[in-house]
């Protein structure tokens, strides 16, 4: 994740990100469920399968839900560590879980994210956040939320 790579579109807004996220929660399960199981399990060398990629998006939702909540309180900038993406995909055995299990978890986490961010006051949206050890400038909570949705969109292009 940032500072090396970020996914926020130049014209992105929190409201736009929230609207897109709400749409994905409704649309993605049907699109993924339409894919054959072989397609969901197919792995290329050095790449995740579609099931594993969905698992990565679950891990992202788990980590970011915590960030979106905790960034609202305490001193600024709220600092957070990156997480072990590859290790979590392996440890959680996403490849072996039924698709409906993965989709239910992904939807529930993202519904909670929508609930948490829907009514954030402007002052809270502007709270500063930063990755531990980053030499880049602090960003706003609003930027972090928009980046979360952009990161999801980046992976949905490969997933669907």
Automatic annotation (TrEMBL):
Name listed for the protein in its UniProt record: DinB family protein
InterPro entries: DinB-like, DinB/YfiT-like
SUPFAM superfamilies named among the record's database cross-references: DinB/YfiT-like putative metalloenzymes
TM region positions: none
Pfam families: DinB_2 (PF12867)
Domain DinB-like: 29-157
Domain of life of the native organism: Bacteria
